[in-house]
Amino acid sequence: MIDKPATTNYNINEFARFRWSPRSFDINKQVSHDQVMSLCEAARWSPSCVNDQPWRFIICDKYNDAAAYSDLLSCLDERNQLWAQTAPILISVIASDTFSRGGQENRWGQYDTGAAAMSICLEAKHQGLMAHQMGGFDANKIIEKLAVPQGFTPMSVIAVGYHADISVIDESFHKQEMSQRTRKDFNDTFFSSRFGKGII
Ligand SMILES: Cc1cc2nc3c(=O)[nH]c(=O)nc-3n(C[C@H](O)[C@H](O)[C@H](O)COP(=O)(O)O)c2cc1C
User: Treating both helix axes as pointing N-terminal to C-terminal, what angle do 33-44 and 109-126 enclose, rounded to 10 degrees?
Assistant: First the structure.
């Protein structure tokens, strides 16, 4: 099985280093209920603006509710469906548009929800699983199929499962799965004292 740890210049924690987004999962290996709940627990303890916890996560487990799983799978872009169908768990990540108290617009709702989603991805690694977030989906279809009420915005879908060999996915993905992970240079995105002033 390929592993693609980050090539780091500085020392970072092992979960950040070894997390990455594979496309090949083992559909025959069930993720336990306790593992799923650990993912939820990790997200639950994420920080949020005034502790409003604006995230909502809908877990669709193929082994638990195959119909709901195929509903969510059908909301993904065709190309995402092609590989995501190898993951036994699909999670719809949803942000509240407003604060739960007062009902005013929550400008940080999507920010907080993204942070909670990242907690899920890191916890997946901790549980011996892998996670892959997707933005390629039909948000209106998710709202309709998963009964998402007004005032909530679908942000992403996360595929979760045990990593498998790339032979389980279409050959058109293989090159990408084997390719090195890259990042922009530090100075492009990290600044010192002023916007645009590279940190190194
Ligand atoms: C918000 C978001 C949307 C993404 N959308 C897709 C997607 O639709 N399909 C896909 O294959 N990967 C998607 N990805 C995965 C990214 O391509 C991946 O995280 C990026 O290339 C960095 O690779 P790494 O996660 O392995 O470090 C998405 C990731 C994020 C955070």
Answer: 140
